[in-house]
Amino acid sequence: MQRKDWDTYFMDIAFMASTRSQCSRRHVGAALVQGKKLLGTAYNGAPMGVPDCSEAGCMLVEEYEVRVADGKEELVKKQRCVRTIHAEQNLLLFTDREDREGSSVYVTDQPCWTCANMLANSGVVEIVFHRPYLKDNDKVQELMRSKGIVFRQLAAYEPPAGTEADVTP
């Protein structure tokens, strides 16, 4: 058996953390790494002690998003769940600022705009993700560039068997 490289090893850990999620829409995991030392993991879910989506159902809000297709703008209605705290937010809540300084975050999914803002202000110097989140991609990429944070996708990465949940897009 061939030894895994560090990116694969830490992304595997992020995917393992995502298996704790009870969200019916998306399972996301994150890992905080300083050098080659694992400092913490987190996943998306309801606040501790509060019923999660599997127990109480999703708490959906409707939003409208402008999409451009074939040069035409169209308004698309979307739903998102607001019961869940994102994995990146939980990671920041449960790790110390001192540990985050100069660290890397491995996350199963590209951070949304809100999480990207929080990570940009957290002291991390690198964010590594696997699955893209196209909605916020351009502005998140620009934010990371302006902050000097290494922001890279592991596109060729294959998650460990049994860690990718069949969830609603």
UniProtKB/TrEMBL annotation:
<dbReference type="InterPro" id="IPR016473">
    <property type="entry name" value="dCMP_deaminase"/>
</dbReference>
<dbReference type="InterPro" id="IPR016193">
    <property type="entry name" value="Cytidine_deaminase-like"/>
</dbReference>
<dbReference type="InterPro" id="IPR002125">
    <property type="entry name" value="CMP_dCMP_dom"/>
</dbReference>
<keyword id="KW-0479">Metal-binding</keyword>
<feature type="domain" description="CMP/dCMP-type deaminase">
    <location>
        <begin position="5"/>
        <end position="151"/>
    </location>
</feature>
<protein>
    <submittedName>
        <fullName>CMP deaminase</fullName>
    </submittedName>
</protein>
<dbReference type="InterPro" id="IPR035105">
    <property type="entry name" value="Deoxycytidylate_deaminase_dom"/>
</dbReference>
<comment type="similarity">
    <text>Belongs to the cytidine and deoxycytidylate deaminase family.</text>
</comment>
<dbReference type="InterPro" id="IPR015517">
    <property type="entry name" value="dCMP_deaminase-rel"/>
</dbReference>
<keyword id="KW-0862">Zinc</keyword>
<keyword id="KW-0378">Hydrolase</keyword>
<dbReference type="InterPro" id="IPR016192">
    <property type="entry name" value="APOBEC/CMP_deaminase_Zn-bd"/>
</dbReference>
<dbReference type="Pfam" id="PF00383">
    <property type="entry name" value="dCMP_cyt_deam_1"/>
</dbReference>
